[in-house]
Specification:
Blueprint: H1 3-15, H2 19-38, E1 45-49, H3 55-64, E2 69-74, H4 77-89, E3 96-100, E4 115-119, H5 127-141, E5 146-152, H6 162-173, H7 185-191, E6 196-204, E7 207-214
Parallel strand pairs: 1-2, 1-4, 2-3, 4-5
Antiparallel strand pairs: 5-7, 6-7
Bound molecules: S-adenosylmethionine.
Length: 215
């Protein structure tokens, strides 16, 4: 594990218990659009990377049913503990496995999953690391798997809002406080060999967010 991901882990450990309070109301609608695009079916094996406090994880677990399985991987033990409580409260522990680990080196077999989900997480990584994460996702999905990504989006050719510019400035100058920034999601996915099947755009506090389905 690199020094960068250890810092990242400490940051998310610190904010894990307050994370829902800070961001659930603003991000929920976008996550749900991504989930709707992924259309998880009963019996499927689904991977969520950077599951955070486990809101989507719990919903995915309900969708895969008793014969399916949801595996989550997140770098933060604090996030894992919060998510595990939700899974236990929903009595879905029998079909969910939570792993504390790094999305850039997935501890899973090739072709193990039917689908993968990622929300407000891809845009945390550097260009080089996004390529690693997406390469790992391709490996564990194999030829037939599908991927849904929800991310803050950089929309080329459109004037950026003040908030978008502020985010980018903060990310550039204070990456440990604002670790994410808008990215060109389609270009990023295509550069890693994914084909985009669907794209939905929405706004979060004047900033563009996209939900994308790819394979
Ligand atoms: C901004 S939060 C988003 C959480 C959740 N997906 C959501 O939409 O609410 C990013 C998550 O990615 C996790 N994360 C950061 N770096 C990671 C890495 N290298 N591998 C796996 N997870 C990571 C963090 O611990 C955190 O839970």
């Amino acid at each position: 594990m690199t020094g960068e991901s250890i810092d990242n882990r400490a940051f998310y450990d610190r904010i894990s218990s307050a994370y829902d309070l800070l961001s659930d109301s603003s991000e929920r609608a976008a996550r749900e659009r991504g989930e709707a695009l992924l259309k998880v079916q009963p019996g499927e094996r689904v991977l969520e990377l950077g599951f955070g406090t486990g809101n989507t994880l719990t919903e995915l677990a309900a969708q895969v049913g008793a014969r399916g399985k949801v595996v989550g991987i997140d770098i933060s033990e604090g996030m894992r503990a919060v998510a595990q409580k939700k899974i236990d409260r929903a009595k879905l522990g029998d079909r969910v496995e939570l792993v504390v680990g790094d999305a850039r080196a997935l501890p899973f077999q090739a072709g193990e999953f039917n689908a993968a989900f990622l929300s407000f997480t891809l845009e945390l990584f550097s260009e080089e690391d996004m390529e690693k994460v997406l390469g790992e996702i391709r490996r564990v999905l194999g030829d037939k798997g599908r991927l849904a990504v929800v991310s803050m989006a950089l929309v080329t050719g459109e004037k950026e809002s003040l908030l978008e510019r502020t985010y980018q400035w903060m990310h550039h100058h204070f990456p440990h406080i604002v670790d994410c920034r808008p990215i060109d999601v389609r270009k990023t996915l295509e550069a890693s060999g994914f084909d985009v099947d669907r794209e939905e755009r929405m706004e979060m506090w004047t900033m563009p967010v996209v939900a994308m389905l790819a394979h």
